[in-house]
Write a structure and sequence with these properties.
The complex is a heterodimer of chains A (140) and B (100). With 140 residues, chain A is of the alpha+beta class. Chain A has helices at 3-29, 56-62, 102-134; strands at residues 45-51, 66-73, 79-82, 94-97. Chain A is built from 3 helices and 4 strands. Chain B has 100 residues and is mostly helical. Chain B has 3 helices and no strands. Classes of the chains: A alpha+beta (140), B mainly alpha (100).
Chain lengths: 140, 100
């Protein structure tokens, strides 16, 4: 159990939050991308992850944390907007936009940022503790 | 949880890192083996951090936090080495100050 395993655990946490940010950014960027009728619309992405199935000692010995599983497409119904003049409008005059929920994505952005910061704080505390330990027996 | 530091640990790690000869190594060689291992570890951390920075500068898709993390690890490793060296030097000077 050394400080580097704490670093490694925090690293996995930060990698996960970065992946959540990536997914949300893609979702938001594609939010207003219309698709021609008959083609598959963009489906919102979501990051799947899970904690490594290790007990505390194993987490510390083998540097556990979270495991990034995959980025999956969510099965959300497209948002239909009535716009008969649009080149992508279907026979009834509706245009299909991806079923991205902007409020959810904004919340994901916020929570990803806060969790990233939390990981960072935990890591900084570990770093400070290590630096303090090195001061042991020092002149000051 | 935390293993107690034992006098035997130095000899064990030294022989593991050393030649593997059955005869016990002289104290100076053991000390050198431990010291060399510590220096090699700090050096490899610094080399890893250096590589990560180069990759980032070259525009390769490296996560920013990983680069920073490796830099911090290298820094901590080097600080540990320096603290180690300071302690040893202190002990040496203490011995040299002894009245004979």
């Amino acid at each position: 159990m050394d400080y580097f395993s704490i670093f490694e655990i925090s690293r996995t946490g930060m990698a996960l939050e970065k992946a959540r940010l990536d997914a949300s950014v893609v979702n938001l960027a594609s939010m207003n991308r219309s698709t021609a009728p008959g083609t598959a619309p963009f489906r919102p992405l979501r990051v799947l992850s899970q904690a490594l199935a290790l007990d505390f000692q194993q987490q510390m010995d083998r540097a556990g944390g979270t495991e990034l599983l995959q980025v999956v497409e969510q099965d959300r119904a497209p948002r239909m907007v009535f716009d008969p003049g649009h080149p992508h409008a279907d026979a009834k005059g509706f245009v299909a936009y991806p079923g991205v929920d902007q409020a959810t994505e904004m919340m994901t952005l916020n929570s990803a940022l806060r969790s990233y910061e939390a990981n960072m704080v935990a890591l900084n505390v570990a770093k400070t503790m290590a630096a303090r330990a090195l001061d042991l027996g020092g002149t000051q | 949880m935390i293993d107690p530091i034992q006098a035997a640990a130095l000899a064990d790690t030294a022989s593991a890192a050393g030649t593997g000869a059955s005869a016990p190594m002289p104290m100076a060689d053991r000390f050198m083996a431990v010291m060399e291992r510590e220096i090699a570890q700090a050096n490899s951390q610094m080399v890893a951090a250096d590589t990560a920075v180069q990759q980032l500068a070259a525009g390769e898709p490296v996560a920013l936090h990983e680069v920073m993390l490796q830099l911090e690890q290298a820094k901590l490793g080097f600080q540990t080495l320096v603290a180690f060296r300071n302690k040893i030097l202190e002990a040496y000077q203490e011995v040299m100050r002894m009245q004979v």
